[in-house]
């Protein structure tokens, strides 16, 4: 994900703003490929997997149909 | 891409079909976007519709899907992706347009097969199990003069969807349609 995407990403639970923690960047530094997005209101954290932020609410995150 | 990955995609991710093309054509035709406009495609699947909008309009396009295989395929094709439930992780008033080709097939609960392809296709018993929550949630993330492009099928009931959209504060107009032997697909443009 591009870091500028943070402007429009919010916590799915309370719409709080998200802070990027422990970011890993790709070789040219343009994309965030790993790290965690943390809600500045409720503290819930959301992983960035292979450059894709997973902003499913925590109770949906484990849901994996066969 | 490895062959095994390709096989996973074919079984786990809805691939572009007539409905995808109809929606992409309609959005690219109707959208009057500037370079600083953001467009969201909900339930992007393969990323086909989002990719078309990104290629054919000046807007920056973000694509979301519940399905981890879908967001990976779409990102692999250069689409900016977020794994999300409908519009829940996006800021208020963020988007000039939101496009959605929802799961809309009415499905007997006895016949639900509980995999990613079923999630991509099934709209529950009335076909609107995903459309109704989407219509309730989407006004929050849409800019005041923004538009929603929603693909619906005659199998789902276009009039019922227009009525629900009205309850969510939208006026609706049909901007594209295509008839097949068993259904007619319509793209609705919703605005406030």
From TrEMBL, chain A:
NCBIfam families: Trm112_arch. Signal peptide: none annotated. It comes from the Archaea. InterPro entries: Trm112-like (IPR005651). This is Trm112 family protein. It comes from Natrarchaeobaculum aegyptiacum. Pfam families: Trm112p.
Automatic annotation (TrEMBL), chain B:
Gene3D superfamilies: Vaccinia Virus protein VP39 (3.40.50.150). Residues 39-101 form the Methyltransferase domain. One of its GO terms (molecular function) is S-adenosylmethionine-dependent methyltransferase activity. It comes from the Archaea. InterPro entries: DNA_methylase_N6_adenine_CS, Euk-Arch_PrmC-MTase, Methyltransf_25, PrmC-related, SAM-dependent_MTases_sf. The keyword Methyltransferase applies. GO terms for biological process: methylation. Keywords: Methyltransferase, S-adenosyl-L-methionine, Transferase. The keyword Transferase applies. SUPFAM superfamilies: S-adenosyl-L-methionine-dependent methyltransferases. GO terms for cellular component: eRF1 methyltransferase complex. PANTHER family: METHYLTRANSFERASE N6AMT1. Belongs to the eukaryotic/archaeal PrmC-related family. This is Methyltransferase.
């Amino acid at each position: 994900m591009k870091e500028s995407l943070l402007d429009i990403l919010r916590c799915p639970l309370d719409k709080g703003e998200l802070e990027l923690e422990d970011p890993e960047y790709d070789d040219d530094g343009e994309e965030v490929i790993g790290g965690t997005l943390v809600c500045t209101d409720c503290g819930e954290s959301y992983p960035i997997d292979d450059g894709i932020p997973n902003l499913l609410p925590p109770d949906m995150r484990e849901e994996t149909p066969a | 891409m490895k062959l095994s990955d390709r096989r996973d995609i074919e079984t786990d991710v809805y691939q572009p079909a007539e409905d995808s093309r109809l929606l992409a054509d309609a959005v690219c035709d109707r959208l009057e976007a500037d370079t600083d406009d953001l467009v969201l495609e909900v339930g992007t699947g393969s990323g086909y519709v989002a990719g078309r909008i990104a290629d054919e309009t000046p807007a920056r396009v973000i694509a979301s899907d519940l399905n981890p295989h879908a967001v990976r395929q779409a990102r692999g094709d250069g689409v900016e992706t977020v794994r999300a439930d409908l519009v829940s992780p996006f800021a208020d008033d963020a988007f000039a347009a939101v496009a959605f080709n929802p799961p809309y097939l009415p499905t007997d609960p006895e016949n639900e097969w509980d995999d990613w392809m079923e999630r991509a296709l099934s709209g529950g018993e009335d076909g609107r199990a995903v459309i109704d929550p989407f219509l309730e949630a989407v006004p929050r993330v849409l800019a005041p003069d923004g538009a929603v492009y929603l693909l619906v099928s005659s199998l789902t009931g276009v009039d019922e969807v227009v009525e629900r959209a009205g309850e969510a504060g939208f006026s609706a107009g049909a901007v594209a349609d295509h008839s097949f032997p068993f259904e007619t697909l319509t793209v609705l443009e919703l605005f406030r």
